[in-house]
Amino acid sequence: MTGADPGLFGPESVTWQLHSDPVMWIAGVRALYLQALHPRAVRGVMQNSDFRRDAWGRLMRTAGFVGTTTYGTTEAAERAGARVRKIHRMLTATDPDTGERYGLDEPALLMWVHCAEIDSYLHVARRSGLRLTDAEADRYIAEHHQSARLVGLDPDAAPGNRAELAAYFETVRPDLAAGPEAREVDDFLLRPPTHPLLVPAREVLWRRVAHLAYASLPPYAHELYGRPAPAPAAVTRQLRLAGLLLRRVPARVRWQLPPKHILRAMARLGPGARPAPYKLGR
């Protein structure tokens, strides 16, 4: 639609296509597993929220933020970023070993959360069969300088391609550990509290998602958690099967789930804005 606001990324971006893929839910759980391995970052979450009681709310707020910043108007994305920055400025955490009190808006903590998310989204999408070239993968990472800026980072300090992202993880690895907070996140993700009537569904569906998200982590993460994962080839096969099954659910059905970010973007910009994998590689 002529003159309509495409938002921060727009329909021609890799982000616009990739974030519409249903495997993003698996990728989001992988990101939680990865983020929990940074003791200072996960401590900030655990000390400032009742993670076990509000974990579903936290997941949905994260999904809402990603949906708004990807498919919303520029104004909506900037408002969402401002809210996140304000919350981070207000919150602090305490290191139980040293007594140090630190802010959750430390650039190092924001960078870890940012990179763990971007790496997880990209890794799971590609490994599950979404066809992205290396150049498109680099483009995706570079596009998320916008996301880095929204949460309060210097966008030029964030990785801009796969090589820079890999170098970042090599640099930060000595700081990672599976402390008590990470163990609590791990336990929650395997056995999230739910209504008794939904326990069978949790065992059949959710645990499969959680196990697959965990299995897709890098080897060093498995070593830190101390739980083995299937052989990489087996994990890739499982991710491809999950991607195949999830992508068979009609997009229009998937996109009906609230808050309908994609449908609202298409109504604003016209049917040509519809995300579709075939638009990658053009």
UniProtKB/TrEMBL annotation:
Its EC number(s):
1.-.-.-
Please identify the protein, giving its name as recorded. Answer: Oxygenase MpaB family protein
Q: Does the keyword Oxidoreductase apply?
A: yes
Example GO molecular function term? Answer: oxidoreductase activity
User: Could you confirm whether the keyword Hydrolase appears in this record?
Assistant: no
Domain named ER-bound oxygenase mpaB/mpaB'/Rubber oxygenase catalytic: which ranges?
16-247
Question: In this record, what's one Pfam family?
Answer: MPAB_Lcp_cat
Give the EC class as a word. oxidoreductase
Keywords recorded for this protein, A-Z: Oxidoreductase
